[in-house]
Every structure is written in C-alpha cells, then in structure tokens.
Amino acid sequence: MERTLTVRNVFLLCVAFAACSISLAQASKVELVSDDKGFTLLKDSEPYYIKGAGAKSHFGLLANSGANSIRVWSTNNEAYLDSALAYNMTVALGLYVRPERSGMDYNNEYAVQSQIEQLKTEVLKYKDHPALLVWGIGNEVDLQYSNFKVWETIEVLAKFIKEVDTNHPTMTVIAGLDPSKIYMIKKHCPSVDILGLNAYGSLENAPLNIRKYNWDKPYIVSEWGVNGPFEAPRTAWQAKKEPPNGVKANQRLRRYQQKIESDSVMCLGSYCFLWGQKQESTATWHGIFLNNGYPTEAVDAMHYCWTGSWPEQRAPSILDIKLEGTNWRKDHFLSPDREVTLDIDVNTNNNSEIMVEFRLFPESMSKKVGGDIQKSLEEIELNIVRQSKYQVTFLTPKSKGAYRIFAYIKNKNNQSSVANVPFLVE
Fold this sequence. Notes:
Layout: H1 7-24, E1 30-35, E2 38-43, E3 46-47, E4 50-55, H2 59-64, E5 69-72, H3 79-86, E6 90-95, H4 109-126, E7 132-139, H5 150-164, E8 170-175, H6 179-188, E9 194-199, H7 206-212, E10 219-224, H8 245-260, E11 267-275, H9 297-307, E12 317-323, E13 326-327, E14 333-334, E15 339-347, E16 355-362, E17 383-388, E18 391-395, E19 401-410, E20 416-425
Parallel strand pairs: 4-5, 4-11, 5-6, 6-7, 7-8, 8-9, 9-10, 10-11, 14-20
Antiparallel strand pairs: 1-2, 2-3, 12-13, 12-15, 15-18, 16-19, 17-18, 19-20
C-alpha cells in the first residue's frame, strides 16, 4: 500500500535519526592537567576553555554568539544534553543535591542514603553521553546551611563518579567564597576536582580570594553576571534598586575581561547567568532575555566576550531612567493619583526604528533566596496621561503601597532593553 510522507513523519524520522546518532557517539575524554603555567582542561586531548552559559533554551543563538558549553542544574531533562550536542556544545551536568534550606535533614540517614542512591542511577544513566563535560555535584548547598554533613554526601557522589566514570571531572558549586567553605571542601571532599563558584558582586575579588583562602585546585565561575538582588542597595521601604540594562551589560563585559578571562592560571572558564529569564525580585534582574523571549543587549555583550567582536545588528540600550527628574539610584516617594513623569536615556546603537512601552507592577515581597522559585507578578493598568518617544507622564496609583514602573524598548528585530524604578505611594 502506498504511503504519503507527512511533515509529522519526517519530523519523527529526524528525531529517530538524531537519537541513533547520539547513541552511537562516543563519550569525550575530559581531563585536568597542570604545569608551571597553571591548570588546563583537556577535551579529547585538546585544550578546552569554557565559554558557557546557564541555559535551557535559545541554543542556536548561544552557539552563534560564540559559546561552547551550557550548564544545567539537574538531570531532569535529557533533551538539554541532546540539544547541546546538536549545536556542538558541551554540558556541565548538575546532580541536584537537596539543600538544607529546602527541608532536607542530613541527620536522617534514610533520606541521605535514598538521595545518594537515586543520584548514582543518574550518573550511570548519563556518564557516557557525548555532550557531558563535567559533573556539578550540588548547587549552593552551603547557602543558609548549618549541618556540615552535606559535604559527606558530596564526597560519596564524587568518589562514586571516579569509580564508574574516568572520563569526566567532578565539581561542586558554592555560593560565593569564604575561608570556611574552602576548608570544609578541602577536608571532606578530596574527590572533588574543581570548585564551581557562583559569584556576582563577589566576582570582583574572586581571583584574589581563591588564592588567599588556599584553594589549590582549578575553579570554574559556574554562575556570574551583575550584582544580584541580595547585593543591591535598597530603598527606605526595602525595595531593591535594579540598574538599567545598559549599565548591567557594561558590567558583564568588564567583569568577563578583567575578572574571568584574565585568570589564565586557575580559572577554566565560566557560565554566565542566565541565558533565559526568571523571576528573582523582578522579572528582568538576571535574565539575558525577557519573559517574552526577546534578547537584550546582554546577548551582544556576551557575543563580544566570546568572539572579540560585536554582532552585526546590536540591540538598543537603556543607560538611565529617571522619575520626576531623579534617577533610579534615589528613593521616590509619591502622592496617590498624581501626575508624574518618567524619562529614559537611550543608546540607539544605530537602530533607526525603536519601539517603547511602559508597564506598572506591584513590588515583589518574596523573601526567597539562592535561585529558589518565585512567582511572577500581575501587571497593573498604567494610567497614561501623555507619552512621547522616551518619556511618559502617568497618574500614580490611588492605593498606597510599593510599586515599580518598567520601560521596555526594542528594535525591529525585537532586540530589547529594559529599566525600572521602584516608588512608594504614601
């Protein structure tokens, strides 16, 4: 009987072919070597400097921007490894070791052993995947913790990996540097090969402190970017002040060049945060993309970091935002139902057509930390009185409380920038 080759059938054949190709591919041999010049990561005997991002999407743009690796925080989706391989990128694969702040009790031997056995099965499942680069055992288990037994779990898993997988180094990831963390890992986790360092504001002194605190193995900057909400200056009502995207993009570029790339002795590379979007105090703080998927000028900055040149078409960029003539660094106390004016300072980056949008949200009251999931906020209707290209006059809400107004701009390719100002209606 004659059959028609439908689009769906073609798609299924492509998926099957890709899966077959992956299954036939060989695991890469990844190893650490050192000499008088420092540490080097070798992949299949060739030096491999990590130019990576924490990423679960936008892989095509990531590869085209010059990246060669992604970091994911758990093994809950094999598609991330397969997608990375399809774009000739590697993966720092996380093993999700539950942090104490999530309710894990490291005095509960049954819970501890159950977690270990479950993660061992994940190691066996993925150890031969051709996209695998390094194992990331735990992420920020040191954040708000008091039970040092968690390091015993890290060591058990690292030691197990060394027994069953001789092709991939082990890493554990901590939230910032201090001498006690380095001491605990050196003492309790000798099977850990690499220190993963999540560093935001603390990245400024990381190359110095990692030596000062006597870490004697290589490290990867496993998360980095702009100063996090937890480091931000606050208003009198405790709202966090977020710099405009243009300020943040310039900070990313400087930190990469001066703090990451410059440490060729101990640093094996880095993963910028976040090649995507998430709600963390605001919906725009860490994301290199907006929640509608549009890329910001942070993509351009990383393209320059990884390739040494700017992309042909760059995003416009908001350099400053002012409410009633005073910029985002100041506190803004306003009366209810009052006309106020917001202005933005824009670098067009040679974009001839720029679209502007202003949006109003309530202030986030979330107290969560360490990347724990936060709920997105519901938008409030903005009562616009008049608007010109880079300015809007609006009526403040009638209800007292804390708010935040956002300015979004984009070019015809949807390359975007954003800035915001928190204000209090008294």
